[in-house]
Amino acid sequence: MPNKQNLNVKKRIMFNKDEDYYFITYNILVFLDILGCVSEKSKFLDYTKLSYIIPFISNHLLLDLIVDFSQTNHLPNNEEIELLRETYYKSRLKLKLVTSILFTLERNEYIALQKNLTRNTIDIWIRKDKIPESFFNPSLYRIEIEHTKKLREVSPRIRTLTVNTLLDQLFGNKGVTVWQV
User: Any idea which UniProt keywords this protein has (predicted)?
Assistant: First the structure.
């Protein structure tokens, strides 16, 4: 029995959900589906926002911090600011990984990407006709669905916000210095 427990501990240590392609992929697809980004008309503006959103969908502590702040308007303490700062930095570093995943999904026709000449961004939507219907089984992604809905309550226009406005909402107005390239 101790060997099996040790193996389970090692597996948890070896797994890094922040860099797991499958984890990031299903978080993106579920998020876009719940927001209704399923056509060019209802697209998600500026895919780069996804890199900053995924940590809030996948980590209830981060999400609760944002929800609490929006409901009470209290300022985060130093520990919470440091958590948000770390999340922001990791999200910036993860942008290339998210981009790579999205281009792979587009090549396999699971999503569509479209250049937005007005905003100088790339917008995204799901091609649900190319994804098996069973993929979006709500019981499989109950937590991610719940987190997406909470995040949408905090930021109702999350689909159309500029990346700078989103960064201010999630990080900037909570004491984290942000910059956009």
Answer: Membrane, Transmembrane, Transmembrane helix
Question: Measuring CA to CA, how many Å separate 70 from each of 5, 83, 152, 174?
Answer: 41, 17, 12, 10
Q: Which of 116, 57, 140 is nearest to 91 (CA)?
A: 57
CA–CA distance, 123 with 40 (Å, rounded to integer) = 9
**Best CA proximity match to 57, nearest among 80, 32, 39:** 32
Domain span at residue 28 reads 13-174
**Which portions of the chain are predicted below pLDDT 70?**
1-19, 180-181
| 4 within domain boundaries | no
Distance CA 36, CA 143 (A): 17
Residue 121 has phi, psi (to 5 degrees) of -135, 175
What does the alpha-carbon distance between residue 181 and residue 165 come to, in Å, rounded to a whole number? 14
Is 70 part of any domain?
A: yes
Distance spanning both ends of the chain, measured CA to CA: 52
Alpha carbon distance 91, 68 (integer Å): 21
Beta bridge partners of 112: 125
In a domain, 40, yes or no: yes
Determine the pLDDT at residue 13.
47
**Which tokens hold the place of 130?**
């190319």
Return d(Cα 149, Cα 153) in angstroms, integer: 6
Matching residue, tokens 């939507």: 125
How many domains does the chain fold into? 1
